[in-house]
Amino acid sequence: MNKRNIEVLVLSDIHLGTYGCHATELVNYLRSIQPKVLILNGDIIDIWQFRKHYFPASHMQVIKEIFSLMSKGTQVIYITGNHDESMRRYSGLHMGNLQLADKYVMNIDGKKTWIFHGDVFDATTKGSAKIIAKLGGHGYDLLILVNRAINWLLHLVGREKMSLSKKVKNGVKKAVSWIGDFEQTAAELAIEKDYQYVVCGHIHQPQIRTVKTDKGSVIYMNSGDWIENLTSLEYNNGEWEIYQYNEKEMAIPKADIKVFKEENRIPILNIITDEVAVLFNSLSAIQR
Known about the structure:
Elements: E1 4-11, H1 23-30, E2 33-41, H2 57-71, E3 75-79, E4 94-95, E5 98-101, E6 103-108, E7 111-116, H3 129-156, H4 164-171, H5 173-192, E8 197-200, E9 207-213, E10 216-222, E11 231-236, E12 239-244, H6 274-287
Parallel strand pairs: 1-2, 2-3, 3-5, 7-8, 8-10
Antiparallel strand pairs: 1-11, 4-5, 6-7, 9-10, 11-12
């Protein structure tokens, strides 16, 4: 397969370790590209909802593919989100082609680009409200499972797939208003800081749009997610685009993902795979 070269790629809200994650599709996508810079903008591994009995081989393979890209020269910048917030204790770490950060500023073709997950604007991820948010996450995971069963039945009768979670979001005025407020807040803050681009994740809403205020303008972008939308942001030749996975255009590999035995798995809080385990062992030594 001829790989597409990408100057900058932004992925967020993969939520590895949850039933809703489309890991197989993501593996296929990662194998089709060669980015110079890969920005993982939060909620990559869902430590909030991790279950010891559920971390399939395809989820493991996503991590292996990221390390494979790193070994081929891709610079990986891991920006922490709320679902993987336990990694924030290591913010500022540099190891080879890997960097951990809570936020990141890039100069892309002379334009300052501010990148962060976005949970800083969400009061439901903090304090006692976090407990409700975690319960809501489990409910969302269940909704995704029900949705997949419905889509399987729709496929059998030749009907188009549907997204229950999107219908819920679009049908609740408060949710639509909150998304709009989130985007506006991020844009206004970026304008104040004199950034030309601001890139977020968190709300699972892929977007590229110009936001104007009386103080100036900024291009707001969101990379979406790999639960519902299966999207990323790609930067090439001076332009940003939203990439959306299309299963009809890409054959999904079925027999190409190794089966990992349960006894060979590394606990998730050490972040799976031999390579990442080495990383976290090094981090522990540094902290001591």
